[in-house]
Amino acid sequence: MRTALLMMVLGLAAMMWAAAALAHDPYTNWRKPDNPSVSCCSNTDCRPTRAYMGDDGLWRAWNGDQWLIVPPSVVLPTDYAGDGRSHLCEQGTYIYCFSPGQVRG
Questions:
Q1: What confidence tens digit (pLDDT) does each residue in 28-86 have?
Q2: Which of 18, 36, 55, 99 minimizes the number of CB atoms within 10 Å of its CB?
Q3: pTM of the model
Q4: Which residues, in sequence order, are CB contacts of 82 under 8 Å at separation 6+?
Q5: 5-9, 13-17, 57-61 — which is least confidently predicted?
Q6: DSSP assignment, residue 33?
Q7: DSSP state letter for 96
Q8: What b/e sequence results for 4-17 when a residue is b if at least 16 CB atoms lie within 10 Å of its CB, and e otherwise?
Q9: Between residues 19 and 67, which one has the greater pLDDT?
Q10: How is residue 93 annotated by DSSP?
C-alpha cells in the first residue's frame, strides 16, 4: 500500500513538473528586440499579463504589483505567443520583453 501511494505521489509530481515546463515553452526562443543576442527569459520571468495602451501610445503592463510603462524598444509583435493574450517578461520593474495581445473591442 505504501509503495503504491509513493508511486502515485511521484507520478503526480512528474506530471506537474512536465506541465510547468510546457507552460513556459512558448518563451524559450524569445529574444530582446533591442538586443537579439539576449534571451527575454530565465524560466521564471515570463507570463501572461493584463495590458493596455495609454493615450500617449505607450503600452502599460501589470507586473502583479503595479502598472509598468513598456519601453517601445522591448515590444515584440502582437500575439507573439499565439494565444491572443499579452505576455510580460520582467524582473521587478525591469522589462525584458513584452508582447501585446490581440486588441479586443
A1: 889 988 888 888 887 678 999 999 999 999 999 999 999 999 999 999 999 999 999 99
A2: 55
A3: 0.72
A4: 26
A5: 13-17
A6: T
A7: E
A8: eeeeeeeeeeeeee
A9: 67
A10: T
Measured between alpha carbons, how far is 101 from 99 in angstroms, rounded to an integer? 6
Cell numbers placing 94: 525591469
The residue count of the chain comes to 105
Type of residue numbered 90: E
Which amino acid type is present at position 72?
P
Cα dihedral sign, 54-60-70-83: negative
- Phi, psi at residue 57, to the nearest 5°? 85, 5
Q: Concatenated DSSP letters for 43-88?
A: SSSEEEE-EEE-TTS-EEEE-SSSEEEPPGGGBPPTTTTSSSSEEE
Scanning the structure block, which residue is given the C-alpha cell 525591469? 94
